[in-house]
Amino acid sequence: MFHLTQFDALAGLLFIVTWFGYSWLVDRSNRGGQGLTARMAGFRRAWMNEMRARSNRIIDGQINMTLQQGTAFFASTALLAVGACLTLLGASDKAIEILSTLQPGEQPSRAVWELKVAGLTLIFVYAFFKFAWAYRLFNYCAILIGATPDREHADTEAGIAAANRAAAMNSIAARHFNRGQRAFFFALGYLGWFAGPIAFIVATAAVVVVLYRRQFASDSLDALA
Question: 144: closest CA among 131, 172, 163?
Fold first, then answer.
């Protein structure tokens, strides 16, 4: 239907499997519990336990607001990327002409080009939804911080439960934010497809190596240890 070569189809399938496989490794596997994201979830719980013991929680609200602002920036960036992809679709002929210089002797078809751009657009749309939802969850976390009983009731069952709720909400928001960022990183690998299936596979592998190293073998992880 789209005149994809078998090599292109294989590269696309490998991209999808790699993305889902890496996501499972970080979010659901036992190995993921040793990574940077899981370690930071522990510090989020520690933060909320400290928060419930404070009488003045302005600093906690400011920290949460900083997280919101970062999420809003990425959500806006994702929307701009979606707009850029739609612009590419409107300039397909010129883009194909430029792209043909990257693949000498092979003129990409318009259908294949539009399929690739549509895929890139979907990645950025997915990222936007993740960032937008994370922003809303950080807003809910701010409300839960405000609803936490004061210091005099910090060690009561209600105080501990309120802090745990705020920590859980903050961690869920961070999880969605991380998935949005992961989509951005994999979008960089996806760009390799425009230069051909070999470049697509190489770029995807490079992205996974970088992400794995930052998650499980980085200086930032050593700093937490």
Answer: 163
Q: Report d(CA 123, CA 208) in Å as an integer.
A: 16
Cβ–Cβ < 8 Å for 174, 44: yes
Residue 176 has, within 13 A of its CA and on its CB side, a CA count of: 24
Q: What is the pTM of this model?
A: 0.90
CA angle 8, 81, 28 (to 5 degrees): 65
CA distances from 155 to 141, 149, 151 (A): 20, 10, 8
* 52 contact partners, CB below 8 Å, separation of at least 6: 148, 149, 151, 154, 159, 160, 162, 163
Residue 4 φ/ψ, nearest 5 degrees: -75, 140
Q: What type of residue is 93?
A: D
Report d(CA 155, CA 144) in Å as an integer.
Answer: 17
What is the SS3 assignment for 46?
Answer: helix
pLDDT digits 0-9 by tens, 75-124: 999 999 999 998 888 776 676 666 666 665 566 677 788 888 999 999 99
The strand ranges marked E within the chain are none
Phi, psi of 32 (to 5 degrees): -60, -30
Q: For Cα atoms 145, 149, 152, give the angle at the middle one, nearest 5 degrees.
A: 135
- Helices 157-190 + 58-90 axis angle, to 10: 20
Residue 92, judged by CB atoms within 10 A of its CB (0-12, 13-18, 19+), counts as middle
Q: Is the dihedral of CA 176, 178, 181, 187 positive or negative?
A: negative
Region at 55 (left for phi over 0; alpha for psi -120 to 50; beta for the rest): alpha
